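Re: folding output
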Amino acid sequence: MISTTPSRQQGIALLAAMILMLAITMILANIFYRHQLEVSQAAASLHRDQALLIALSGESWAMELLAEDAANPQTNDADHYGEIWAQAIPMLPVEGGTLTGCISDLQSKVDLNNFSSYQAGLLQAELNQYDNMGFAKLWLNLLDILEIPSSPARIATIVDWIDSDSTVVNSWGAEQPDYESFNPPRVIANSFLVESAELADISGYTIGEVLALLPWITVLPESSQSGQVRPWTPVNINTASDELLFALGGRFGEQFVDTVKLGRPFRANQIHDLLNDALGLRDPITNAGRANIIWPDTLISHKTDYFQLYLNAKIGEAHMEVTSLISRKTLPGQVLHPRVLGREITLVPSMIPSKSKTSELPKMVASNDQAISADEQLDQQNTAVQPACLMVGA
């Protein structure tokens, strides 16, 4: 009889050696994986830091550009989309990545914080006017254009949300007791709005309505000195959209829009003279015009103090979006120097597309309800000066 003990022992030894080798291989693989993971995380962190620094450098460059625009005698009397600041920042190659961006005019929109200047008497007096425009009538007109139900309550609730007292501005207003019945209850701000989406918290406004309004609204910070009433932030007539121009036109409607679009860009004292002549607003005897009364300087302007900078930085695997609120407004005695009032930094995951803050706005339907042909639409798009941020989808 032949013994198999030695061969069995050899098999067991071989199996043990194979198990040991497998264990060592797994341990080494785990160590290598962890090392690669740490290296990848370190590289990603480095790329994020580099992307932020590149974006902040772009921010500094944009502020210098705005400062030069305000200091240049050839450009400081108006702000419009034909100026250098309004051109999209070309894709700049930087070490390991790219930087793109654009500057948009925040005064091409309606500043909701303007409603802080309304009291009951002023609000009712404006609504009773036939021709004269103000932000309250502008707001109601914009709601009508966007097919959102409009009423004086839509203004009163915003006024009460912003003002510091606990008394309703009129019978349409809403103060804290009205919000306690909400589900869930809300605490009224009694201060300036801090973001446009906050409008959805105000009584009477739905999320869907606010989403429809977002392309035409903004909230700008308080810029008044202590103890003084916050000044109005006018709409820049040179950069306002068609929808906003229709809302500003009031009863003059399309005639106002066509006059403004054909006459842009406007400089000091030009807009009212053109409107007086084009809309027949001059007195036949004195030749005095009414355009500056219908559209006062507190409502429309040809210059801008507030801008939004959008930057898109990509370094390696890091993708970062930076949105900055830049003010060029100065108080008496101050030296002009653009300031960053707020900054939003967003890390964009690589597995989803980057967000788009704006999209191409739909063309206004002609008042005669006639369809615009494709060729006419193409001609309008080719001749109109488009905002850079709209063109790049920022």
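--- second protein (sequence, then structure) ---
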Amino acid sequence: MSVTSPGGKESIITGEAIELEVRPASVPLRALAGAIDAALWGATALFSITMILRYLPPDNAAQGQTLVVVGIAILTFGIPFVLEWATGGRSLGKTVVGIRVLREDGGPVRVRHVFVRSLVGVVENWLTFGALATVVSLSNARGRRLGDMLAGTYVVRLRDVEATAYPLLMPPELSDWVRTVDIGPIPSALTTRARIFLTRAATLNPEARRTHAEALASEVEAYVSPAAPAGTHPERFLAAVLVRRRNEEYLSYVRAEERNGL
């Protein structure tokens, strides 16, 4: 989930309620990553062409042309697609320079996002030698190329800004209750506020912590039925609800991947 602070800095909230500051990757940094990848693909192409010329019968030009076309498709689309999907939004170049592709909401990319980026990248990065991607990236604040816009993604640099954050765990005394309740569509902004609060609660003074916990619990209670057992601590109530939501979102993601045959 992606959020923007009053100062204009963007951050995402992970499933473990850890806040990460996200900085859109600069165009030069993305260009460097692209150059590294292009060098790798170029070396692979050179090796492939050498092998084709060495083992292809000289009187079979049609087969040679077919192999060249298939090879170009694999190098410009197939390999980038498989690598970026398998690594969750990275490539060799992106890994070297420390950047990654994320969805617009801060979540990890899925196969459809990578497919669109890779397909459009054939035109942006290869047919125009990166010129189209550079022009489009320079024209928007996040440095998104056309493939990112169509796929709903952007490239970021991540830095953990909440190193002392703790994983979000299910309170044992509420595990039975939370399995039986109905949880409505809690607004994403409210969920984000609750997660950030639980992450930073230990740093607040007792009075502010109590006030914030009660206020957030009161808001979240409107979407939960039946109510939590009498005497439930507001922070533990929030944790129980958020853990269940997180688990359900994860199961939804796994089932979607299974339906896609992944």
